[in-house]
Amino acid sequence: MKKLLYVLLFAFLLTGLLSAAGKSETATPTIQIKDTTGNTAQLAGIPKRITFAGRSGNMVADVLYMFPEASERIVGTGTTNQRNGDFIEMLDPLYKSKTYLERNAGPEQIAATKPDLVIMKNILKKSLGTPIAQLDIPVLYLNLETPEYYEKDFEMLGKVFDNEKRASELISYYKNEQKYVTDRTNTLTEKPDILFIYHTTRDGIAAFNIPPEGWIQTRMVEMAGGNPVWTNGHPGGGWSKVNMEQIASWNPDQIYLVAYKENVDKVLSTMYNSTKWKGLKAVKNKQLKAFPVDYYSWDQPDSRWILGLNWLAQQIHPELFRDLDIKEKAESFFKDLYYLSDKQYKEEILSRLGW
Q: Do residue 51 and residue 152 come from a single domain?
């Protein structure tokens, strides 16, 4: 009898061990991914259902879609139409199968897409990210505001998509493009005074705004070999309005204009015909220019900023960059980084640039 009990006990223990072993072999390993805010997402495995949401949706989408896995894994998308159409609709063959979220979508609407990961801009961490995390949905944040953060964000996305090779390719591309510019501008002893301004119209009132010192627009001017005249008056924070008296006191050599929600060429024409602007050095010398725009302007912390840097460097120092073919560089950018065909590039990008 005792012998029988030992046999039964042994069989029971053996069954338990085999069962545990079987579970350990089939269990999905957990993954921890840390973003630049210090937040860590605990994932059950490589995320298969990704939703991005909130403000600055185009900037988030445009780095996600540099990874070939994005189309199949993104199930919910935020607003990406800044004015000139939806770039993602052209990129994503599965576009119509996605769930589309309004710019102000709340945690419940985002949770309804059943994501196993939500990605958003870091500025939304407190207002949107934390409430989503409280629903036990992993969240990761993208910074995208400087060249250094772009590299770190690409590294993170390489882990998200389980494609660190692609992340390395993207990091190398951006580093090489920056180096191409800064190798020529770092040794300059004379740099023209540059003003970067963002035109807005709200409630019929036009205003000009300048970016803070640490934003990508300021960094672009510095890397392109210009002296950003506005930085001492705006060391931090968001966009800051600037009046005509201040602009006249700076009287920069060159002025670069963006207008995200308006036709920037029309704004440019109005400025050239305005008596307020005609007295400025930059306007007299035809050095008031608008940034290129396809779906989005090339100055933002969108993936296109690297094109904007090349374009700006050639505008500020045409002799130094006489060998730069910006049309060729733009074509390579969209074909190599977004896998566009010749037809897509010509019809969707080149036609918007108007070159």
A: yes
